[in-house]
Amino acid sequence: MGWVESIQKAINYMEEHLLEELTMENIAREANSSVFHFQRTFSILTDMSISDYIRRRRLTLAAQELINTDNKIIDLAYKYGYDTPEAFTKAFRKQHSVTPSEARKKQGKLQSYNRLVIQVILKGADPMKYKIVEKDSFQVVGVKRTYNCKNGENTQGIPLFWDEVNGDGTDDLLFQLNNGEVDGVLGVCVADENFKENSLIDYWIATNHEGDVPENLQAMEIPASKWVVFEVHGPMPDAMQNTWKQIYSEWFPSNSYEQAGTPELEVYSNENPSSPDYYSEIWIPIK
């Protein structure tokens, strides 16, 4: 099964079981992927989490049923996964900006989220520059925080983490400590060994440093891997986000490589991140 077909199969599974209890494990299994990598791929391609997609689709269907039937609001609340009418009303208002009662009276406009269809995008005008390299294991040192992917804590917390590191001088220290082959300061995402149960990741801001671990920093060993290294050109964060999306929507679907499942790296140079000429890299371990 191809990469795009695997992702679409998982989406189809979510749609077919939308009114049932869905688990991340079963969804990822449909795509023949780990929970961590499926969640990451899905959020990069769609700009939303899996739980956001499920919630938006359920509330879209609930709105359609609300205005096209006489079914009681309390029954619709239970049908679409809410324990109380109050919880249903709160979620419904957040998405549609009206209450279920107002929607039934056709007051205001409803916000509909359609079923997703994954497509391969072919772009000859935007070539991707990359290389394949093999590296032995190496040490990184830095600071880390733990985030929950299920509730979107990672998407909100990681940018704040970078702001903190840039503001307290840790970023400058890491550039000074950089003495390994990977040149720059790294953003490293590592899934918890119990990710299936807890949806936790460790996010490191670190650098390739060979030698003793400096005081107040932690160390991690990056395993020996074959890497695909993508060039990223342009100001942060847009250039990095756009390249990730291009990797998942264009590069992986048209190549035979798969992710190896070990930590991926974002590599930042010590230049002005707002510059249109800013250079950075994305390192993905492959097999």
Automatic annotation (TrEMBL):
Keyword Transcription regulation on entry: yes
Entries under SUPFAM superfamilies matching the protein: Homeodomain-like (SSF46689), Probable bacterial effector-binding domain (SSF55136)
Pfam family membership, one: HTH_18
Domain HTH araC/xylS-type: 8-106
Classification via InterPro entries: AraC_E-bd, Cass2, Homeodomain-like_sf, HTH_AraC, HTH_AraC-typ_CS, MarA-like, Reg_factor_effector_dom_sf, Tscrpt_reg_AraC-type_HTH
Keywords attached to this entry: DNA-binding, Transcription, Transcription regulation
UniProt-listed PANTHER family: RIGHT ORIGIN-BINDING PROTEIN
Protein name (record): AraC family transcriptional regulator
Gene source species: Psychrobacillus mangrovi
